[in-house]
């Protein structure tokens, strides 16, 4: 994903309904948090995390199509994307690596997402899934540290908005039947 494509998608992300916030920022990195209540059980929500093609916004991919993305729900599993030849040169992208997988409860990944991949940064993306009266509550945090040209404070709000869009997509996908 080029940084311009990333920034172009920020306008759509601003309309995301999930409460989101940059929860910390310094010269060394930043953290974000978004949460959403989903009318589906924790196990169903957790299983849906493995299907980013159903909930990730295609404009925030390298191939332009979220259907090319997968997440293997086990330690060492890849949050990867296949890039078919029709989108330009064929290839693959590793967005993150699963470091903790607890079915129905937590998915934690390590990786620098989007334009952060080209920086000297690392991030931890965490999905905490808990039961709630209406189904499940998902709290998504992303903690990033390292060297980021232009500084973490400049990119943190954009990353927060894009991730909030993804969480809103997870909610939409979980609350509508699979096709």
UniProtKB/TrEMBL annotation:
Pfam families: Polyketide_cyc2. Keywords: Signal. Gene3D superfamilies: 3.30.530.20. Residues 1-20 form the signal peptide. This is SRPBCC family protein. It comes from Sphingobium olei.
